[in-house]
Amino acid sequence: MAEEKKYRRQEQEPATEAITEIAPCVLRSELPVELPGLGHVNCYLLEDENGLAIVDPGLPGPRSFEYLVKRLELADYKVSDVHTVIVTHSHFDHFGGAERMREESGAEIVTHENFRVLWQGEEATENLGGAEDAGGDSANEDDETANIPFWPKPGSKTPWGTDRQLPGSKEDLERWKAMGKQEQQWFRTPKPTAHVTDKQIVKLARREWMAIHTPGHTADHLCLYDPEYGLMLSGDHVLPTITPHIAGMSESPDPMADFFSSLERMSDFSDVKIVLPAHGHPFENLVERSNDIIEHHEQRLDTIKSSAAELTEGTVVDYMERLFKPRSWGTMAESETYAHLKHLEQKGEIIEGEKEGLKTFRLKD
């Protein structure tokens, strides 16, 4: 009997060296990321009379930068041609190469005005990075994980009371430990040189684009809309075959509500012909896909409410085990579960409590 092939999401596909023209002056390249659940990040090259603006220059570290240089060469460009780096949001598989590119080419680094250079420590695990600037001093230089900024500190807790864990397999963790030891400055967060606001017009690829602030996946998430050719650079806001992670570890009191609002806003862009996501292939159905993601999360909210009736008073882990398959259990799944629970709490449908140091949630009487 032939071995059954395991279905792989688009976002998990490994990076290729292909350079693809999506629209006039817009090229798609793919950079390897090798993260749990992801195989590549799309780095878009926007051509103009002065050279290139690039969108999301991949992971930090010398190896990823070598991949970026190779993609530029395949498109007949070099590092010195890059005059602008646009970062869609503050996750390190998107901003990693930005600061080195600025140093080597003098490029501007453009982000939304809410871009956060430093993250709060409790956010580090689910972001897979950014708890603190890697240029800072380590608390214990003899600790084998001390130079990895996203490694949970011993005894650190999540806001809902569980021990923080780094997602991924044992092999994933060993690889990241090795990468974290490459150099102290390996994980430098970028220092934006220019910020944009919602609906601000920016000149890219020889035409005008509109900046669209889409909080949810992160509070600083930025999309870019090109009305001339009907393009939407969607970052991680709308992906083709997976639903973006919504973090319960957030400054927002209700990140789910933020995400719903940002997804609903996509109906204002029904003229978009091609969506350019940060992971996966370009696709056409922006509004339909946004509505699918809303429906997916509404179903999860319904699951939580039905589970609350059975659990009476459940912890975040109790609810997580109802929402996710065992292979996904861990801090990231807990965090997304917590975001859903906080949304229902904000709506007045459930009540938060505490038991033995763990937050609990029950239906409102």
Task: Describe it.
The chain is an alpha/beta fold and 365 residues long. The chain has helices at residues 62-74, 92-95, 98-105, 124-127, 170-180, 255-265, 286-311, 316-323, 331-346; strands spanning 20-23, 26-35, 38-48, 51-55, 82-86, 108-112, 194-196, 201-204, 207-213, 222-226, 231-235, 274-277, 314-315, 350-355, 358-363. A seven-stranded mixed β-sheet has the order 1-2-3-4-5-6-7. Helix 8 (316-323) packs across helix 9. The chain is globular, with a radius of gyration of 21 Å.
Q: How far apart, in Å, are the first and last alpha carbons? A: 55 Å
Let me know the largest β-sheet: 7 strands, mixed
Average pLDDT metric: 86
How much is the radius of gyration in Å?
21 Å
Task: Identify the CATH homologous superfamily of the largest domain.
Answer: Ribonuclease Z/Hydroxyacylglutathione hydrolase-like
Total strands: the figure is 15
Order of strands, main sheet, comes to 1-2-3-4-5-6-7
Q: Helices and strands: which structural class?
A: alpha/beta
Order of helices and strands: EEEEHEHHEHHEEEEEHEHEHHEE
What portion of residues belong to β-strands? 15-25%
Number of helices: 9
CATH topology name of the largest domain:
Metallo-beta-lactamase, Chain A
CATH class assignment of the largest domain? Alpha Beta
